[in-house]
Amino acid sequence: MKTLTFRDPEYPEFVATLNRRAIPSDEVRDTVAGIISDVAQRGDAALTDYARRFDHAEFGDNDWWVTADEFKAAEKAVTPETKKAIKASLKNITEFAKRSMRKDWSYKNAEGARVGERFVPFDRVGVYVPGGKAPLVSTALMTAGFARAAKVPEVLAATPCGPDGRVNDALLYALKAAGVTEVIKFGGAQAIAAMALGTATIRPVDRVFGPGNKFVVEAKRQLVGAVSIDLLPGPSEILVLADKTGDAKCIAADLLAQAEHGGDSVIGLVTDSQDLLDKVTLQIELQAATLSRGDIIREVLEKSSFALVVKNLDEAVAIANDFAPEHLSLVVAKERRILKRIRTAGAIYLGNLSPVAVGDFLAGPSHTLPTGGGGRSFSGLRADQFQRRTSIVKLGEKAVARSLPHAEEFARIEGLDAHGRSVAVRIEQPAAEPAPDSSMPEA
């Protein structure tokens, strides 16, 4: 773990690097562009080739769909304990989602026109669930579970299979429980392309959700326009902001938990207490030696971890807001005051007794969160992202008359006389109004 204090000469330069912009490398961008082009041109044949190349799986014609028999077999294979955990997570997700969905509304503006918004679920969405190093059952719930809460009628999931063409039983059970209607056994940028563009056998979706590696994230970025996306959630990251009240054992455990995702994961600690840092460093060494994914964790510790001792908590807050972490663990005595100053974190965990893993698995909010500095521009996945927004405007005769002078002035300024005329004509010859109904929500 790279460790610096505010007294070290290289400290200012390193802190400056923490203000990140998730810009892909030319190599990643070009690779993904090639995959998307290939899927667009060759469709199913390209998907079959990529499955053979990346997943070492052989597919015949159109047999990459999870079948009803596979879902039934998965349900039988999953233990009661797993089913209970999935049920508990879905319950919390559903209750959280209900409170965050947008609702229809309207009011009368200054001219008397009734204006408002209407929210309906997307017709068909795609959710991506990584499955390379581990079956991310919780990701299935924290993407598709929100789609279910929003009442999306069609949910297509994409997740990579093993060389035997099978998907993990617990993951399949979770997908089914979360309301997924179709599952394709593909991963990577090619899966995102298939969901966004469609093929001869895969109907395209309206919006793509879910986290993934740098190639998946870049595919989502390049396909915006062909489809909409939730956000750009990449490899896992955590920043712990703590003072002397932090519990070293708990902090080390949270850092190691995120490090075991491996890959390009980033873990960091910012504190004004050298004593706490020393204790956390020792705990990381002790705990890492006992964990099953020790090799993966050690790679992250060597490659992409850091710990900083700052002058004071004001500086720590500034660093946290620049870093814009996916997960921020805030463990300070003056919690409420510091919390008000945090602006860019994807999710915030308060106090020594709030493990990030509970948020990852079942607390209720989605663990699909912005990474790579994306927290400055994006929020985490929410239920209302599964809703399509439409604005509604309804005018009566008086509202048209009051709006006309302003509309005509805008039309004059912009040189759009037909716009002005389209308002005036309704005053010259008022149209008959249909009988009122309840189609427009009241304020």
TrEMBL record:
| Listed InterPro entries | Ald_DH/histidinol_DH, Histidinol_DH_CS, Histidinol_DH_monofunct, Hstdl_DH
Coiled coil spans: none
Keyword terms:
Metal-binding, Oxidoreductase, Zinc
Q: Which domain of life is it from?
A: Bacteria
The reply to whether Protein transport figures as a keyword in the UniProt entry is no
* UniProt cross-references to PROSITE patterns, sorted A to Z: HISOL_DEHYDROGENASE
Q: What cofactor does its activity depend on?
A: Zn(2+)
- Please state which protein family the record places this protein in: Belongs to the histidinol dehydrogenase family.
What is the protein name stated in its UniProt record? Histidinol dehydrogenase
Taxonomic source organism:
Haloferula sargassicola
Upper classification of the source organism reads: Bacteria, Pseudomonadati, Verrucomicrobiota, Verrucomicrobiia, Verrucomicrobiales
